[in-house]
Amino acid sequence: MRRIVPILFLLSAACGRNPLLFRLGADYYPVSSIGSEWEYQVASGGGVITTVVDQIVMGERTCYRVQTGADYSYWISDEGRLEHYEDHRVMFNGYEVPVFQAWVTWLDWPLAVGASRTDSASTFAVSQGVTISHRWRRTTEVAGIGEAAGYEECYHLVMSETIIDWVQTGGFEPETSATTRDIWLAPDVGMVLKVTPDSTLTLVSYRPGS
Questions:
Q1: pTM reported for the whole predicted model
Q2: Which domain holds residue 108?
Q3: Cα–Cα distance, 196 to 40 (Å, whole number)
């Protein structure tokens, strides 16, 4: 024990002095603790709360269910990657038609400046005798490291997403939506700032779960 304690102390001290070691040892998207709660301020007014609710089975895999407002998302944080359950639907004649459901890697661990990943899908569904095609593509780039919302050592992500839906029947044309998000992740806290063309969310409080 006399040999172990100094070694542990040296490792801890080294992490404190070395930002790289600190970042490597941090959890930049802590969704594995039930009860964790993030409160965000919306620039246009009001706020939103995100909570890790519980564990459930989704897409035949055990995951963490996260609630933001009235919406739910599903996450798995494994060694080497963070996965998100994509559930894409298209409105047709008053009905939501599922067109793509799958687990997709959202981030690769550890994060590194300059790293990027692209995920895509091309699928279709048939509803009421009509074919609905769906094309999706998302590219995420780790753009840099800096301060955001009062937190140091934040990774800045630039996420671009394009969706093309086409209800292949008379009177319908392909509909394209493109979105770019800037997201900042803080060590052992998660998302502290998100900027989109129509909204800005800033973290005002974080309470870790257990």
A1: 0.88
A2: 4-207
A3: 14
